Amino acid sequence: MESELLEVKLELEDLENQLVEEVKKRRCEGSELDPRNYNSWKNLIHYLTLRKADRRNLQLRLHNAGLSALSNSESHVRFQLQAIQRRLGRSYAHNELATCTYPFAKTILEENVHRLFGQQKSKSSQVMVTLDGQNGVDSAEIADFMKRGMRIARINLAHDQQEDWLAIIQAIRQAEQICKATCKIYMDLAGPKIRTQFLGKQGNQQALEIEAGACFYLTDTEEGLDQSKQVAISPTETSILRYLKVGERVLIDDGKIQGKIERRISDTRVEVRVSHIFKKKPSIKAGKGINFPDSKLQIDPLTEYDLNVLPFALKHADLLGYSFVNRPKDLRHLIAEIQQISEQIPPIILKIETAMAVAHLPALLIEGMKQPFLGVMIARGDLAVEVGFERMSEVQDEILWICEAAHIPVIWATQVMESLHKSGLATRAEITDASKATLAECIMINKGAHTAAVLDSLAEISIRMEGHRDKKRYTFRALSIAKRFLTK
């Protein structure tokens, strides 16, 4: 036992040295941040250093020795590491102790949550409700949503027009007066949503038949094609064509049609062979989304349309959602465009919805930490298609962990209680999903006929889970089932 504890001591000491050295190596990076984010940045680097290697054996040995494990240390990595070493007899000078303690990290995260989503009455997740020209102009109904827990209203700038958005904003302001409370306004930039469109004679058709094993073309011109025999699709962003490579996957309509690029015909034309079709009617419809999860697309997520609506968003939005952001340079571009319009930069919400954004998440967070406040949205729609449905649960957790390490609030979005929202009846699976969603600081719900029911259900789920969990740390509240059994 003594020799095993000695090995653990040495491993912990070596691990702490790695944390310190990694921060020293990146000191210049830290000097560019907003000062209030410096400790959060350090902790993020500590967490990434901790997780770059397999620590399962160390975790097991700590557990066997009755020592605190590292699995709940996301927000205060070095402090937790030092606490374990102190239990093993190591002493530290006062100036050697980590300043990012658990209470400190909790306070920083709470400050960030309050700035982004408003003052919290409890630890429960805040709720964001999507409003549009149909469900967002009745101030009495919005006031009812606010009474049931809505704290943020979402306006998707990809839909409706400026007069519709103004009507929604006016209804929100009237609802605030009714409730004597405030509601934050979040606006999504549309981003470059790549969709199917047909060429030439096929252009006026709504759907073209296709079978598994057949081929279609991604191209920017109908020239050289026999359209009576060949299905030709022109992506709405044709600039992506030159980045596509043989062997890469092409997913259409949320992955209902899957294929691989079989050959490149020219700089702007590739042939795709369909491998799977998960539809009753084997056809490709116009206007459906296309995803390229394996491709390194060099595409600017800030479109001309986004630039045109940006002044409106900066005038009215408390939070600005950045769709399809992939790299730090994308964020720098948006900040530069904002600075040409306004001296005030609103908190930006990084919408993580591509495999590339997941891969670049730490770099995106560090770029965002140059501003005082930022947030992250797990945009599960496109993201699930990009990373694969089987891997989605793992990716969700990774995003939550990394953002907690950086003390950055997370919005859990897409299909939250969707059946309840649309039909009035929840499925068992979506209740479990909603429970998982409470790990995030905010939950976004989409449009539906039963918004009030969804808000009531989320409130009850959040309150119940709040008693058992603080983030992913179980708080050990008394269990009714245990009390009932032992008091018989």
Keywords:
globular; 488 residues; 18 helices; eight-stranded parallel β-barrel; TIM Barrel; alpha/beta; 3 domains
Describe this structure in words.
The chain is of the alpha/beta class and 488 residues long. It folds into 3 domains: 2-100, no CATH class; 109-192 and 302-474, TIM Barrel (Alpha-Beta Barrel); 200-291, PK beta-barrel domain-like (M1 Pyruvate Kinase, Domain 3), CATH 2.40.33.10. It has 18 helices and 18 strands. It has helices at residues 2-25, 27-31, 38-51, 56-64, 77-87, 102-117, 139-147, 162-179, 304-316, 328-341, 355-359, 361-368, 380-387, 389-405, 418-423, 428-437, 451-468, 480-486, and strands spanning 126-131, 150-156, 184-188, 207-209, 215-219, 231-233, 249-252, 257-266, 269-277, 283-285, 290-291, 319-322, 348-352, 374-379, 410-413, 442-445, 469-470, 473-474. The strands form 4 sheets. Strands 1-2-3-12-13-14-15-16 form an 8-stranded parallel beta barrel, surrounded by 8 helices. It has a 6-stranded mixed beta sheet with strand order 6-5-9-8-7-11, with helices on one face. A two-stranded antiparallel sheet has the order 4-10. Strand 2 (150-156), helix 8 and strand 3 (184-188) form a beta-alpha-beta unit. The chain is globular and about 80 Å long. The protein starts with a helix and ends with a helix.
What's the structural blueprint in terms of helices and strands?
Elements: H1 2-25, H2 27-31, H3 38-51, H4 56-64, H5 77-87, H6 102-117, E1 126-131, H7 139-147, E2 150-156, H8 162-179, E3 184-188, E4 207-209, E5 215-219, E6 231-233, E7 249-252, E8 257-266, E9 269-277, E10 283-285, E11 290-291, H9 304-316, E12 319-322, H10 328-341, E13 348-352, H11 355-359, H12 361-368, E14 374-379, H13 380-387, H14 389-405, E15 410-413, H15 418-423, H16 428-437, E16 442-445, H17 451-468, E17 469-470, E18 473-474, H18 480-486
Parallel strand pairs: 1-2, 1-16, 2-3, 3-12, 5-6, 12-13, 13-14, 14-15, 15-16
Antiparallel strand pairs: 4-10, 5-9, 7-8, 7-11, 8-9, 17-18
Helix pairs in contact: 1-3, 1-5, 3-14, 7-8, 13-14
